[in-house]
Design a protein that fits this description.
heterotrimer, B: about 170 residues, mainly alpha, about 0% strand, C: about 260 residues, alpha+beta, Ubiquitin-like (UB roll), 2 domains, two-stranded antiparallel sheet, disordered C terminus, binds iron/sulfur cluster, binds FE2/S2 (inorganic) cluster
């Protein structure tokens, strides 16, 4: 057996790049389920043609299951933004070699990521159903249905 | 031989363009192509993600604008001369978005499957010996899922959408 | 086999070489030669035939001609290899395309400047570090401990791997697979005490974390070193804070 059983210890290294490398694998694995699940629900089970304000509201504002959807979307958005922008940073780092330009590039990247994370989390957490708007939308849909069937009858 | 005046010897350093073209010609095989695809799909998803977070922001801020935006995804748009379409519905628009949607699903699926393969290579010592087989699995699963999904996503294009009621909603904006 | 039979096996090869004259050219250009080649000739023989009988200005590096010195790495039909280890028999088609390896400045024709490559190599301290008092005999090691890093001792520093690596093509600050292979050779040597320092050097954006597991290095290595696997082992050592002396935990479970 080619195994001596000796494992030499070294100080755990930690560090910025290692942390990011690890984060990329873990967030990637989580996103496989979160993002593919999200795509399945919105694009396959439902369809982009049926998704609208009322659909989003019915998920996020549901008194029982609303928090599940919000938690799902919140986790997904935050992981995806960090995963995506760190990936972009890795690509750019191969092209941009000068340290000062790297500082500029990371400022832009993380600035943009922060805006998206704050904006995205804001939409998900502070969303409140606009009942009035949904009522109006339903009424108009009925009117449209009626108009359409009227046209068919003609 | 050439008669031009010679100069002190210089080394040749490849510029960005030469790096890209010569790199693409490198016969790296499966590993290199999957790496490139992983990058391209990743960047594609990132662009979509940015758009998607912005349009979701509209849900909170401007519900009507949100419905107007998603109506465009379904091929309906207002504000154009009515003579151009039937009731604000434009089939090329709808087709473009449906095909784009399929592209997005393909990107996410490939990026996920290939990502799992990379993670396995990183965490499972022996995986790197089987990377070719693993890439074939990635491709196999990708094709097996994409065929039914493509049919499912493209099938509704046979008919015009049942209703384009949202057009009317946004008309009242 | 008779000489006649052998002679009939001769192939006519079109040899396309990327030439660069450092005193005249702005950028490299292609030049074509035609030559007869025996299927059992090495690509190196073909190049020398061209140099000796057709164009003596052609510049290349080579020394041992037996895959030992690592000096004739070049891009042969698109992939990095040692010209002295590829037989004409294994060249597909009738064209032999020869280019200098990527990612390093070209000095002349097929010769590149290896200094950046060796600087990266030196940066991982490729020598035994052990301050403990030397025993009167050798520093002993069990066969199993020796086997742990056997594969990475085989590197001949030809640069086939590093110059096949896409991240290295654009980012020449990346230490590159060859340097990591040579760090691996000492990190996993039970007689060495410098693992921590080497790991600290490699734990960097331009160290092992630049590797994107493309596997180009592994397929290019003329010594059949599983380069990507060695890199993964270094990554795992960094992650876990311990050097697994066992090559493959799964093999132990199965054994
Ligand atoms: S496995 Fe890593 S070091 Fe090897 S070619 Fe790929 S990116 Fe480069
Ligand atoms: S690891 Fe292989 S390809 Fe890389 S320098 Fe060593 S012998 Fe050459
Ligand atoms: S000439 Fe020495 S390795 Fe090819």
């Amino acid at each position: 057996m080619a195994y001596s059983g000796i494992g030499r210890k070294v100080r755990p290294n930690g560090g910025f790049e290692l942390a990011w490398w690890f984060f990329m694998r873990i967030s990637g694995l989580m996103l496989v389920f979160l993002a593919l699940g999200h795509l399945t629900i919105t694009h396959l089970i439902n369809s982009v043609e049926n998704i609208n304000y009322a659909f989003v509201a019915s998920r996020w504002a549901d008194p029982q299951s609303g928090w599940i959807w919000r938690l799902w979307d919140l986790t997904m958005i935050n992981l995806a933004v960090l995963h995506g922008f760190n990936g972009l940073r890795q690509i750019l780092w191969e092209q941009i070699l000068s340290p000062s330009k790297r500082v500029i590039a990371s400022t832009i990247i993380w600035g943009l990521a922060a805006v998206l994370i704050i904006g995205g989390s804001y939409s998900i957490l502070l969303f409140q159903e606009n009942r009035e708007y949904i009522q109006k939308w339903k009424a108009e849909r009925e009117a449209a249905r009626f108009a359409q069937s009227a046209r068919h009858i003609q | 031989m050439s008669t031009s005046t010679s100069r002190p010897p210089q080394v040749y350093r490849r510029g960005t363009w030469a790096r890209i073209t010569e790199g693409l010609r490198y016969g790296g095989g499966i590993g290199q192509w999957s790496w490139l695809l992983h990058r391209v799909t990743g960047l594609g998803i990132l662009v979509f993600l940015i758009i998607h977070i912005i349009d979701t922001f509209l849900v909170v801020a401007y519900p009507e604008l949100y419905d107007h935006t998603v109506a465009i995804y379904g091929g309906s748009i207002t504000g154009l001369p009515t003579s151009w379409s039937m009731n604000g519905y434009y089939w090329p628009l709808r087709w473009a978005f449906r095909i784009g949607e399929l592209g997005l699903i393909a990107c996410v699926l490939f990026h996920s499957l290939n990502g799992v393969r990379v993670v396995m290579v990183d965490f499972w010592p022996r995986a790197s010996l089987h990377q070719r087989v693993m890439f074939n699995w990635v491709l196999g699963i990708f094709v097996a899922i994409m065929i039914p999904v493509s049919i499912w996503v493209l099938l509704p294009l046979r008919h015009a959408p049942e209703m384009h009621s949202r057009v009317i909603t946004s008309a009242s904006m | 086999m008779s000489t006649a039979a052998l002679a009939s096996d001769m192939r006519t090869l079109k040899v396309k070489i990327k030439r660069y004259n450092p005193e005249l050219d702005e950028a490299p250009h292609w030049e074509e030669y035609t030559t007869e080649a025996d299927p059992l000739d090495r690509v190196l023989d073909v190049i020398q035939k061209v140099k000796w009988y057709q164009d003596e200005t052609l510049a290349l590096r080579r020394s041992c001609a037996h895959g030992v010195c690592g000096s004739d790495a070049m891009r042969i039909n698109g992939v990095n290899a040692l010209a002295c280890k590829i037989l004409v028999r294994n060249v597909k088609g009738d064209t032999l395309t020869l280019e200098p390896i990527l990612g390093l400045p070209v000095i002349k024709d097929l010769i590149v400047d290896m200094k950046p490559f060796f600087d990266h190599y030196k940066s991982v301290m490729p020598f035994l570090i052990n301050d403990e008092p030397a025993p009167t005999t050798e520093r002993l090691q069990s066969p199993a401990d020796r086997a742990r890093f056997d594969e990475t001792t085989k590197c001949i520093l030809c640069a086939c791997c590093t110059t096949a690596c896409p991240p290295f093509w654009s980012d020449n600050k990346y230490v590159g697979p060859a340097a990591i292979v040579n760090a691996h050779r000492f990190i996993f040597d039970s007689r060495d005490r410098g693992a921590q320092e080497r790991l600290d050097i490699l734990n960097d954006a331009e160290g092992v974390w630049r590797c994107r597991t493309v596997f180009n290095c592994t397929s290019a290595c003329p010594r059949d070193i599983k380069v990507t696997q060695a890199i993964s082992e270094v990554k795992r050592a960094l992650l876990g804070g311990s050097i697994e002396m066992d090559r493959d935990p799964l093999q132990i479970i199965e054994a």
